[in-house]
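Hi everyone,

Forwarding the result from last night's run.
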Amino acid sequence: MKRIVLLRHGESLWNRENRFTGWTDVDLTPRGIEEALRAGDQLRSEGFRIGKAHVSLLRRAVRTLDCVLDRLDRMWIPVEKSWRLNEKHYGVLQGLDKGETAARYGEEQVRLWRRSYDTPPAPLPEDDPRNPRFDPRYADVPDGELPRTESLAQTVRRVLPYWQCVVLPDLRRYDDLLVVAHGNSLRGVVKHLKGISDEAIAELNLPTAVPYVFEFDEGLRLVRDYFLGDPALIRRLMRQVADQGRSR
């Protein structure tokens, strides 16, 4: 049996403030660090022996990974970082309060921006200092591949080449892999693995730092998937994620 654990990062500063984050590089809160450490404890208690990890270039994901590997006593394993695992880019919405944005534009519009498959927010202007073309961590990425905004569909097209060409081949070498990324980049992976429709993917809300396990047979065919933890608690955490886009 082969296993890949998908893990959304722990609570970030802008999760706590209910802001659109996207590619903005914010850190974890103390609660987020506790969540990440707890995820590591869960994986250890379930006998996971992570052979390699993949993570985005954003510090909230990298910090989460460090906490998990520390709890697993596997800080020494190979780690591969990729911008392709970054969160969906929220364009001009980045930094805005989700509740206030819903009050201004309506909850349905914010739901479309957050959860629909093909509706991106307005893009960042080319001279906006938040434009990723100004960020040195993306200096080796062709400018035409760097987003100024994204829909989930565009995020999926960015993530899947890395998934198919890097992550899945690693599963032939390692029995347990860990992928630490973000709510929307991981939603794209789940959509692909489970064949979820464009419409139904809007209802998938991934809570922070809850391990989501995918088991594969030796032919790398998906056998089953499940979250680690109390199902009632996980459902409550999912509802909290869904409610972030409601006006106050």
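The CA atoms of residues 7 and 211 lie 5 Å apart.

Cheers,
N.
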